[in-house]
Specification:
Helices cover 55% and strands 9% of the residues. The chain contains 24 helices and eleven strands. Helix 8 runs antiparallel to helix 10, helix 12 packs across helix 14 and helix 15 runs parallel beside helix 16. It is globular, with a radius of gyration of 24 Å. The protein starts with a helix and ends with a helix.
């Protein structure tokens, strides 16, 4: 009897949902969609192909520029043409995670609803201003110099190593220093363990998003326990909590808040110039009472999570591309030597900005190996495309930016790694916003310039000191996979040879 009642309830739920959303369902019929089952939807197809998310998406999207998926009862429309993507990004405000990430990474600039996000943007914008980027320059230089020293061992031994093992640690340390004003060593943590946890977190959350049966929180927790990864979220969230310097920061917030509240003229309250993002948030929160300690902590976790992974991936893919394309690497090296004749002289405002060709390489890497494969939005009103088809209100829309970056209408020979795609003339010919790695519209990435400068600093130091080579001839589609980020299945195998020895 229980089974019969359950079936009846499910049928009634499906009927009620269809009636309630009749107009939206009728509008969505305009878009191609693979066979769909009630409650389950058809996102299961991304699992069934066993090729990984990236290749599965590519095969399913191949015949279409627009493709509708159903995450259970939730519609998700994937777009891969530039015009469609621009229309949606300009007409939508909310990134939408269907409340699947909040329990694990809190609420912050990455996933907050638009009105709440504007508070994050207002609070964090000064942290990515030109003045603060200058303050971060010393950290960029210090961590890049340490990375060069760490690569000396494998270089002396003539080993081919996975660059990720070195670059990710450096980026985690860099983000921690600029975000919290601390480091892994000072917290007593194991950097490699924390990096591994970040990777597993991205994988698990991606699996959850495309698996409707994992959307309920209690089921997802059971799933994590079954695969032995329940502790990953705890480790992720514990880093800031257990860091004594951050605990002291929380105490400082209380003191500053009380100080302001007890001062008749809040504008008389003066704080020292911030040296880290947390310092700046503390200063701002002393006057913005709605920005709580918990919110500051969530912003820090999200900046660490996203900032370390995305920049590390860009650096690793760029290193591997330059190791494969020796002619491009030589041109980068000649530019670096011209700008910084002495190895230890590098200035963010001067030298880094002069490395134009290196920046073209960084951007070309972001185009071909875009850190984000999909950018998710939710329509807060009906959205009309150029052919007058309507995406109804409350639809998830996924901008397939990885695939749009291979549009021959935007890029000549899009499958070829060519930094000239980003010379001044080529950029001027393309429509605004065609480079979507940092998004577009109201929710464009706040840390775009930070990421580019950090990447250039690391690459400049490495290439100034080492010649790069690899045992692979090219990076194929079969070598790539995606969770929330695009990754290499084969790692980033590179041999670093000291340029002094090479001489």
């Amino acid at each position: 009897m229980i089974i019969v009642y359950t079936v009846i309830v499910i049928i009634l739920f499906v009927l009620f949902y269809k009636i309630k959303n009749k107009r939206a369902h009728e509008l969505l019929k305009q878009f191609p969609c693979y066979p769909t089952y009630p409650l389950i939807g058809n996102a299961y197809m991304l699992h069934r192909l066993n090729d990984g998310l990236l290749l599965s998406l590519e095969r399913l999207l191949a015949p279409y520029d627009r493709l509708l998926f159903w995450l259970g009862p939730v519609p998700a429309l994937i777009l891969k043409k530039y015009d469609d993507i621009m229309t949606v990004l300009n007409q939508t405000q909310d990134r939408d995670t269907m409340n699947l990430l909040e329990e694990w990474i809190g609420v912050g600039i990455l996933n907050a609803k638009f009105d709440d996000w504007k508070k994050s943007r207002k609070m964090l914008s000064p942290a990515f201003s030109s003045e603060m980027l200058v303050r971060y320059a010393d950290v960029f230089h210090e961590k890049a110099s340490i990375l060069v020293d760490e690569l000396k061992g494998p270089a002396d031994r003539g080993e081919i190593v996975n660059a990720w093992d070195y670059v990710m640690n450096t980026n985690l340390e860099t983000v921690l220093a600029n975000t919290l004003g601390t480091s892994i060593e000072k917290t007593g943590k194991d950097a490699k363990n924390y990096c591994s946890v970040l990777h597993k977190t991205f994988q698990n959350l991606t699996t959850r998003v495309i698996s409707p049966w994992l959307h309920p929180g209690f089921i997802y927790k059971i799933y994590l326990k079954l695969i032995g990864q329940m502790n990953t979220i705890k480790i992720l969230n514990d880093l800031p909590e257990e860091d004594l310097s951050l605990i002291r920061i929380f105490q400082a917030i209380e003191e500053k808040l009380n100080n302001v509240r007890n001062t008749k003229k809040a504008q008389e309250y003066v704080d020292d110039s911030p040296n880290s993002i947390i310092d700046l948030l503390i200063e701002k929160s002393a006057k913005e009472t709605s920005f709580t300690k918990t919110r500051i902590r969530d912003e820090a976790v999200q900046l660490i999570l996203v900032g370390s992974e995305t920049t590390a991936l860009n650096v690793c893919f760029t290193l591997l591309a330059l190791a494969i394309h020796q002619d491009i690497q030589q041109k980068v090296y000649e530019e670096i030597v011209q700008v910084m004749p002495e190895k230890d002289t590098l200035d963010t405002d001067d030298c880094i900005n002069q490395l134009k060709y290196l920046e073209q390489c960084v951007k070309e890497t972001s185009r071909i190996y875009s850190q984000s494969v999909l950018v998710i939005r939710r329509t807060h009103k009906d959205c009309t495309l150029k052919d007058n088809k309507i995406i109804p209100k409350n639809t998830l829309v996924a901008a397939a930016i990885h695939f749009s970056h291979f549009d021959p209408e935007l890029y000549k020979n899009p499958s070829v790694y060519d930094p000239e795609h980003f010379n001044d003339e080529a950029v001027a010919k393309r429509p605004k916003g065609s480079e979507l790695v940092f998004g577009y519209g109201p929710r464009i990435c706040i840390g775009a310039k930070y990421s580019i400068i950090s990447s250039k600093m690391q690459l400049a130091h490495i290439i100034r000191n080492y010649h790069l080579s690899t045992n692979i001839k090219e990076i194929t589609k079969n070598d790539l996979n995606a969770d929330l980020c695009l990754r290499s299945k084969i790692g980033y195998p590179i041999k670093f040879t000291s340029r002094q020895k090479a001489k």
